[in-house]
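Ticket #432: bound-state structure for zinc ion.
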Amino acid sequence: MSDRILFRGARVVDPASGRDAVSDVLVDNGVIAAVEAKASGSGATVLDCSGLVLAPGLVDLHAHLREPGREDKETVETGSRAAALGGYTAVAAMANTDPVADTAAVIEEVRSLAARAGLCDVFPVGAITKGLAGEEMAALGEMAEIGVRIFSDDGHCVPASRVLRNSLLYAKAFDIVIAEHCEDASLTEGAQMHEGLHSSTLGLAGAPAEGEEIIVFRDLSLARLTGGRLHLQHLSAAGSVELVRQAKAAGLRVTAEATPHHLVFSDGDLTTYDTNFKVNPPLRTPEDREALRAAVADGTIDAIATDHAPHSVEEKEAEFDQAPPGTIGLETALSAILTHLVEPGTLSLARAIEAMSTVPARILGTPDHGGPIEPGRAANLVVFDPQAEWVVEPPFASKSRNSAFLGNTLRGKVVHTLYRGELVVADGKTQR
Ligand SMILES: [Zn+2]
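RESOLUTION: The complex was predicted; output attached.
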């Protein structure tokens, strides 16, 4: 493959510049060289993109790549492969590995694994507290100094308000983002699903929406108190959305994300006892789902993030109450959003790309991703066919297969992913 690639005649959707028009895009030596109605492609590999959409490569704020520690579930390499196939050129890797990413050394290890894989940029997230224990603050300053931008104890909430307050003060001092998994564990102990009508019918212990809302309220209060940058992860409840809406109206610098599975499914899907629908936070009611959809559409929820959470077949085939929560998501996120939110008209295509690329890139603080698609910018791009239908089934690039979308027919499929000017995915297949 030559260093020059000409994408011919794609619909270029680039929220950062406001562009939405059919155009040629020429990439040369890792950089976008031209965006023109008819670009000259002498010496370039020409890819016919008529009928296809070209957008900035997707950016995931929330993935569990499991390495170091649980390489049986996923590695940085297999997770990067899944990301590239899903159209992602950048992924934030959560800190709940073994050892926990609470020091610069673990951060550097994940970075070097990602560089070796070479399929997308991986931004390791630093832990807020040592060992995710919630007590002592991790080496935030040390990690911030080597460029870590987002900190999270994801998998756990930071239970002590005092610790979260201090971390938000650090966030302000170091210009970093504190991302929170909002869960009052004293209200969710033993919970298998959302607490409501379906949990009573199924006889499963439930987690009330209040378990999330209480922490959202507390965290917003502490963000106001400290002036630190707060990001709320995988929101699931209508009440949480309303609190974020009020906080934003009051001028608070807070951002929030929702996952494709919370935007597509609801607690009624648990009636099959399919453990792939067992996620944390749990799938909530159709009313909650509608509130999430409206919030993504109006920007109250800024970003769509996968919470890609690979688990082994043995673990997911355990009894429902023993199975760990989580679904993989990197390979299905774009298609799920196109099928369930863009096609029915809930989201415009431009807003979907903005929530999956432009805005998460901004939150991550990376200028190389999320557009604008303009000459001189790093060539991190995705090309997808909005009409292609496919059935979600193994094999996956991910080492795990615990997808909530298994067996679903989705419309819209990634064709090419260009990472720093290199076609890491061509015609739907990874190239290395
Ligand atoms: Zn979480």
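RESOLUTION NOTES: The CA atoms of residues 389 and 411 lie 4 Å apart.
TICKET STATUS: resolved
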